[in-house]
Amino acid sequence: MLDKCLSFSIILLIVSFTQTSSVKAEPLQLNIYTIGFKPYGIDEDGHFSGIYFEFANALAKDAGYVDNNKVVPYARVVSALKQGKIDLTIMFRNPALEQYVDYVAALPSKKIVVIGLQNWAISHLDDLAGQKLAYLRGAKFYEPIDTNTAISKYHVVDYRQGVRLLMAGRVDAIIGSLQSINNAVASIQNEDNMQLTLGEPLVLEVKTPWVQLSKKHAEHIDMETLKRSFSKLQASQTFEALQTKYGQ
């Protein structure tokens, strides 16, 4: 009788182990916010796309995560990282976020400029004294301008809003990524069927966008796995392919 009970117990253990082993663990979700300006993050009536959007999704997939990616305004990305509401984003390093994020990997650098309309050539920062500057809300582009109280900053949601304020004469210049500003101009020209010519840009510095991981989520998201996946995507020129896809 004892032998029969023992044999039955062993069978139950084997069946239980087999069933447990056959159940695959569900992949973890990677919560991502993508900055909302073309061509990096595009929101067309709730349909998301863009260079950073697609690259972040490709990174999540290769690393074994399920992506939960949304395109939102820049200021909301900053706020979400501070509050630990998201895991990952791609954008320039922001001094206000240094204590909240770890840096996974760098993407190709971009020129940060100040630029006005065609009839105003900005050759020095002193030219901006007393002027109004369109500035992406929540961003930190260039400290000498950030701390200069002689330059008025008009905070905008995205580059398109900044360019439209420039066209309307409500600001004198706009600061940010030259590529993003040019994309905003092209978008407005196509939308309004008009021609808009900007002046020569004053190049302030070259900045590098980074894949950034929230420190609050470092326990369940493996940064080394993300780094390996990033290297694989770089080797396959995934980012370059996305740039070509979006006309960069």
Commentary on this structure:
The protein is an alpha/beta fold and 248 residues long. Helices cover 38% and strands 26% of the residues. It contains eight helices and twelve strands. The protein has helices spanning 2-22, 51-62, 74-83, 143-146, 159-168, 178-192, 223-235, 238-245; strands at 29-35, 42-44, 47-49, 66-72, 88-92, 101-106, 110-115, 132-136, 152-156, 173-177, 202-207, 209-214. The strands form four sheets. Strands 9-8-10-7-11 form a five-stranded mixed β-sheet. The protein has a three-stranded antiparallel β-sheet with strand order 5-12-6. A two-stranded parallel ribbon has the order 1-4. Helix 5 packs across helix 6 (178-192). The chain is globular. The chain starts with a helix and ends with a helix. The mean pLDDT is 88.
How helix-rich are the residues, as a percent range?
25-40%
Number of helices: 8
| Global mean pLDDT | 88
Query: What is the element string, with H for helices and E for strands?
Result: HEEEHEHEEEEHEHEHEEHH
What's the shape?
globular
Structural class: alpha/beta
Low-confidence stretches: none
Largest sheet: 5 strands, mixed
